[in-house]
Write a structure and sequence with these properties.
Shape: globular
Strand content: under 5%
CATH architecture of the largest domain: Orthogonal Bundle
Number of strands: 0
Distance between the termini: 48 Å
Number of domains: 2
Helix content: 55-70%
Length: 226
């Protein structure tokens, strides 16, 4: 049966467009039946996969505090920001970076615009240059994935972590992350802006928050590239 399916798919390229469309629809229907997936369930899953949004009930109190702090400066709908915050916290845990640092870089780099584009060709939330880091996008289907917020964020955080590790300090890591785009004086200004934005976010966190101490504070042994 699978051999027959492969044969059908291989013939699609030779078929007329209307026949190809009908065949694809028939194959999809067969697969959904085999996997016991209804059309409504498939549509729901596709929407969930495409959607970058989350309910506030999915967030911890600390995460909600940071959502409010970000929204107080940047005009962003809460639902996509909720999903972005969840992704940032996951990446912060895995990279041993401060979540507020990642959020500060996003704010300074792109103003939370996932479609931002700089004169030098840097794109997306973390302003990654696709020509420089094209190999990073291979697992995600190519450089067009740079406009997917989560993909851009994951690659940007990976590059930032590499920059910090390579230089041995947060400040120099940020300088390397920005290197090649600006003059030295502008790189210094960039570092100051990121640090100021991170401090603003930290100030929004209640001082007695235990969760803040364990999840939003930087690892003292971690020395934060583009």
């Amino acid at each position: 049966m699978l051999g027959l399916l492969a044969l059908i798919l291989s013939m699609l390229a030779l078929a007329r467009p209307e026949i190809r469309t009908l065949t694809v629809q028939s194959v999809q229907g067969w697969l959904f039946t085999r996997l016991q997936i209804s059309e409504s369930e498939d549509e729901q899953q596709q929407v969930l996969l495409r959607s970058l949004a989350a309910a506030s009930t999915d967030l911890s109190p600390l995460q909600m505090t940071l959502v409010q702090a970000v929204r107080s400066k940047y005009k962003i709908a809460p639902e996509p920001l909720n999903a972005l915050i969840l992704e940032v916290f996951d990446l912060a845990d895995r990279s041993a970076l401060d979540a507020t640092l990642i959020l500060a870089v996003i704010g300074v780099e792109s103003n939370y615009n996932p479609f931002a584009n700089s004169p030098t060709g840097a794109k997306g939330l973390m302003q990654v240059i696709p020509e420089v880091h094209s190999e990073q996008f291979t697992p995600y289907g190519g450089t067009m994935a740079i406009f997917d917020p989560k993909t851009n964020l994951r690659i940007g955080v990976k590059i930032l972590k590499e920059c910090i590790n390579l230089t041995g300090s947060l400040e120099e890591g940020l300088r390397l992350y920005k290197a090649g785009e600006e003059s030295v004086s502008q790189e210094t200004e960039y570092i100051s802006r990121v640090m100021a934005e991170q401090e603003r976010l930290k100030q929004a966190i209640p001082k007695n928050s235990k969760e803040a101490d364990t999840k939003a504070s930087p690892n003292p042994n971690t020395s934060p590239k583009k």
